[in-house]
Amino acid sequence: MEDTGLPIQGQISRQASERFEKPRNYGPLFQFNGHARITGPCGDTMEFWVQVGEQRITNVGFTTDGCGPSRAAGSIATELATGKPLTEAVRIEQADILTALGGLPEESEHCALLASNTLKAAITDFGRKDR
C-alpha cells in the first residue's frame, strides 16, 4: 500500500493514523458468504467480504484502491461490524465510522460513507444468498 493522500500528521486522530498505516482486516476473505464492490464518486473503489454465521458477522475483510482515509474508514468499519448481529451491523452509518475514527478532515469524510455503503451492500448480498 502506498501513501496516496493522508493529510499531514496533526490533522487526523491517532485512531485514523493507526488504521491508515496498518489497516485491520485488510485483504479478501477466502471463505465468505457476502461480498460487495463499490466505486464512490471520488473514484475510490472499496470491496468488502463478510462471513456470517447464525445471523452474526463472524469475519470481515476489505480492500480499497483509495487514499489513507479510505483505508482507515474501511478498517474501522470492519472492526465495528465484527461480532455484531446482522440487524446491528447493517445500521453502521458514516457518522458511526467518523466517530470511531475520531473524525477525518472534511474533504475525506466521504470515505466513511463509502465504507458504510460497501459494508451494507455486502450484508445485503449475504441476505440474497441466505435461504
Proportion of residues in extended strands: 15-25%
Give the fraction of residues assigned to helices.
Answer: 40-55%
Order of helices and strands: HEEEHHHH
Question: What does the largest sheet look like?
Answer: 3 strands, antiparallel
Number of strands: 3
Radius of gyration over alpha carbons? Answer: 14 Å
Class based on secondary structure composition and strand pairing: alpha+beta
Uncertain segments of ≥5 residues (pLDDT<50)?
A: 1-9
Please state how the strands of the largest beta sheet are arranged side by side: 1-2-3
Calculate the terminal CA-CA distance, rounded to whole Å.
Answer: 38 Å
Quick one: overall form? globular
What does this structure look like?
The chain has 131 residues and is of the alpha+beta class. Helices cover 41% and strands 18% of the residues. Strands 1-2-3 form a three-stranded antiparallel β-sheet. A hairpin with a 2-residue loop joins strand 2 (45-53) and strand 3 (56-64). Helix 4 (94-101) crosses helix 5. The longest helix has 20 residues, at 110-129.
